[in-house]
Amino acid sequence: MIMDSGQLTWTIILIVVVLAIIALALFFGRHWKHAKDHEKAENLRQGAAAEERNAREGQAKAARAAADAQQAEVDAERLRDEARIQAEEAQSAQSRAEEQAMKADSLDPEVETETSGRHRTEATGAPEEQSGDPNRPEQPRKTRDEGDGGDAARY
Questions:
Q1: Whose CA is closest to 110, among 122, 96, 127, 97?
Q2: What is the pLDDT of residues 95-112, one digit of tens each?
Q3: Which residues contact 130 (CB under 8 A, 6 or more apart)?
Q4: Fewer C-beta within 10 Å: the chain N or C terminus?
Q5: Distance (Å, rounded) from C-alpha 91 to C-alpha 94?
Q6: How many whole angstroms separate alpha carbon 26 and alpha carbon 24?
């Protein structure tokens, strides 16, 4: 089988066309792949930028939370100081009140003093009798009006 020149020409043209189609396919395939890779890279860059913004926002939130915590510690310390000062002032006021009550008791002829074993309680300020015997029942307080009658006759 010998080819004539027409067939040989068409065979060569066909081979050249097939090679050209393959070359074009490779060229456009690479161009398409390059465009796809570029698009993918841009998407990755946008995602990285968004992640970086989120990370900076998270760092800012963490810094604000740390500052809030530090402020809360300062506020708590201030409140502890205020509570201590108020407790000291309350204790001082209570001591002054007890001193005044004891002074009033010492001046009042109707209230027995410590020498008789009676004093004011700290909680209520009411007179309370002190005795050495815890089994001894409390005796009601006698005033001059309730006494044996001897003192009441003098008034």
A1: 127
A2: 999 999 988 888 888 877
A3: 117, 118, 119
A4: N
A5: 5
A6: 5
